[in-house]
């Protein structure tokens, strides 16, 4: 995987669009990526799963046992 950045996490979501059979994702600071529909679908599933895991981690930190 890529290098983990210690910068503050982005709070604004990216913007996804479809053009000529390609999915484009525009993020902050000029970040942009073009994906096939299949890659975009899988990325979406992985993002949702990671977001759910991260939310449960922050919830667990807020309410330790």
- The main sheet orders its strands as 1-2-3
Overall spatial form: elongated
Number of helices: 1
N/C terminus separation: 32 Å
Strand content: 15-25%
Summarize the amount of helix as a percent range.
40-55%
Could you give the count of β-strands? 3
**Poorly predicted residue ranges:** none
Rounded Rg: 15 Å
Task: Return the structural class.
Answer: alpha+beta
Q: What characterizes the major β-sheet?
A: 3 strands, antiparallel
Average pLDDT? 90
Q: H/E element string?
A: EEEH
Please, could you describe this protein's structure?
By secondary structure, the chain is α+β, with helices and mostly antiparallel strands. Helices cover 40% and strands 22% of the residues. It has 1 helix and 3 strands; from the N terminus they run βββα. Strands 1-2-3 form a 3-stranded antiparallel beta sheet. The radius of gyration is 15 Å and the shape is elongated. The model has no long low-confidence stretch (mean pLDDT 90).
């Amino acid at each position: 995987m890529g290098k983990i950045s210690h910068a503050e996490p982005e709070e604004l979501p990216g913007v996804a669009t479809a053009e000529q059979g390609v999915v484009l994702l525009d993020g902050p600071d000029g970040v942009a990526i073009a994906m096939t529909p299949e890659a975009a679908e899988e990325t979406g599933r992985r993002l949702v799963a990671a977001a759910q895991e991260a939310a449960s981690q922050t919830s667990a930190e807020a309410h330790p046992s």
